[in-house]
Amino acid sequence: MGVDILTEFEFFAGGIMPKKPTIKTALPGPRAKKLIKLDKAFVSPSYTRVYPLVVDQAEGLWVHDVDGNTFLDFTAGIAVNATGHCHPHVVKAIQRQAEHLLHMSGTDFYYTPQIQLAEKMASIVPGNGPKRVYFGNSGAEAVEAAFKLARWHTKRELNIAFFGAFHGRTMGALSLTASKTVQKKHYNPLVPGITHIPYAYCYRCAYNLCYPDCDLFCVKWIEDTLFRTTVPPEEVAAIFIEPIQGEGGYIVPPPGFHKAMYRIAKKYGILYVADEVQSGMGRTGKMFAIEHFKAKADILAVAKGIASGMPLGAMVAPAKIMNWEAGSHASTFGGNPLSCQAAMATIELLEKSLMKNATVQGKRLMKGLHRLQKTYECMGDVRGKGLMVGVEFVKDRETKEPATKWRPAIIRKAFEKGLLILGCGENSIRFCPALTVSAKEIDLGLSIFEEAVKEVAG
Ligand SMILES: Cc1ncc(COP(=O)(O)O)c(C=O)c1O
User: Fold this and answer.
1) What's the CA gap between 161 and 112, in Å, rounded?
2) Which pLDDT value is given to residue 19?
3) For residue 248, what is the enclosing H or E element?
4) Alpha-carbon gap, residue 142 to 312, rounded angstroms
5) Per-residue pLDDT at 7 exceeds 80
6) Would you call 336 helix, strand, or coil by DSSP?
7) Residue of 144, 167, 432 best suited for mutating to test ligand 1, as the one with most atoms within 8 Å of CB
8) Region 286-303: what's the mean pLDDT?
């Protein structure tokens, strides 16, 4: 299949190509106001909208709202639209499949796109030997499947996860999540037997140590303290970890961390489960973030960017681990033919040029943010890999007191100026634009971000 990699504005569908954000109305505009009122009446109030954006149409990095305002999107629908909004190669793949077969349920029947995508996923996930792929519809389902497989395979009951982790909101995945208490309040009791421990968050080390002098104390602590006092390692099924923590603050652990963790896991027959839901599928410039650390994982959970916006989750494991029996886990919609075709088109684009673009533009973004950090004291830490980049805001560089109020104000200000960004952690902002982002768009995003920072906290 021939792939045309369309960049920047080339695949704009509406005719007029916006080169900069255009805000024509007060925000929200009149149409947006009406729709938000309806939404408030009928839609679950549990959603977390931080600004009143009502999207009408989008292409590439550009989002148009229902009032004709245009925004530069550095959220990619929360790290989902890997190939940009409505990439024509992905749209065509979905359209072709829609005319052919919409659904048959991969749980009970066979169909080509699911089998082909499984073969492709098995080939792109690191590790030798035969692999198997389980398909669900979301990140939480991919994690949930990994959780169940780890129990099924090891016949062990305990698990380890990390403070700051976000693994999803279904009861199993939520039990592993330790991001914000609002996500867990009133849902207890959750799945028992999970111990949360500190992540390698070097900017705010839980042990008050500094890398590399710490000699990865946070890893050693697991063996020296946790396994000697409260958690018998031979009862632990799996360690669930985000190779780069996402929702928790875009936190990149230091070199050697994952390798050391994996070594401990192997020593005690524990499965190392990498939740690549946010960090995977090319976002960091490599297909999976764990590859940056030259480390291994036994099971990988993937979703978000995998199908450029179509619902799909996948859990990939060596065949010798994914040895559960028929009926032990399944999902009616998982591996839907449309989502599978979208995923194959997405992977084609990632391999052809977009992972490389994520590296190049990610470096440009980091360089720009580091430049801003020299001027704006409030930008305490700038970190990331590829196009998974975060800025942590502090009131004071010395004390590192979190600037929790500035963060939402900066996000709101950026929105009013036509840049879409989102928060993560308590006091950080994430930059996760589509992997199609151009140098011009990076520079534009940086300049709007700077204006917002200057006005709020400069
Ligand atoms: C690392 C990680 N795991 C799991 C999830 C849950 O994914 P979903 O919202 O598709 O269920 C998310 C969502 O943000 C995530 O970032």
Assistant:
1) 36
2) 73
3) none
4) 9
5) no
6) coil
7) 167
8) 98
The answer on pLDDT for 412 being more than 90 is yes
Report how far ligand 1's centroid is from the alpha carbon of 381 (Å): 24
Tokens (6 digits) for 346 = 């997405």
Quote the ligand 1 centre to 135 CA distance (angstroms). Answer: 15
**pLDDT tens digits for range 345-383:** 999 999 999 999 999 999 999 999 999 999 999 999 999
Instruction: Let me know: does 280 contact 302? Beta carbons within 8 Å.
Output: yes
CA dist., res. 269 & res. 274, Å (int): 16
Residue 75 Cα to ligand 1 midpoint, Å, equals 14
Atom of ligand 1 nearest to the CA of 242: 1
291 C-beta neighbours (distance < 10 Å), count: 17
Q: Of 248, 251, 282, which Cα lies nearest the Cα of 79?
A: 282
Q: Are strands 194-197 and 236-241 parallel, antiparallel or unpaired?
A: unpaired
Task: Calculate Rg over the CA atoms of the chain.
Answer: 22
Residue 360 Cα to chain centre, angstroms: 19
Q: How many angstroms separate the alpha carbon of residue 3 from the centre of ligand 1? A: 29
What burial class does residue 364 get, using C-beta atoms within 10 Å of its C-beta: 0-12 exposed, 13-18 middle, 19+ buried?
middle
Backbone phi, then psi, for 393, in 5-degree steps?
-95, 135
Determine the average pLDDT of the residues in 224-237. Answer: 98
Angle (CA) 408-411-416 rounded to 5° is 125
* Each residue's pLDDT tens digit, 188-199: 999 999 999 999
184-197 burial code (b ≥16 CB/10 A, e <16): eeeeeeeeeebebb
Contacts of 173 (CB under 8 A, 6+ apart): 139, 140, 143, 144, 147, 167
Residues lining ligand 1, CB < 6 A?
Answer: 138-140, 143, 166-168, 242, 246-247, 275, 277-278, 303
On the question of pLDDT at 9 being above 90, the answer is no
Strand ranges of the sheet holding 62-65, from the earlier edge strand across to the other edge: 55-59, 62-65, 70-73, 419-420
* Beta bridge pairs of residue 317: 132
Average pLDDT (117-131) is 97
3-state secondary structure at position 134:
strand
Ligand 1 atom closest to the CA of 141, numbered from 1: 11
Averaged pLDDT score across all residues of the chain: 96
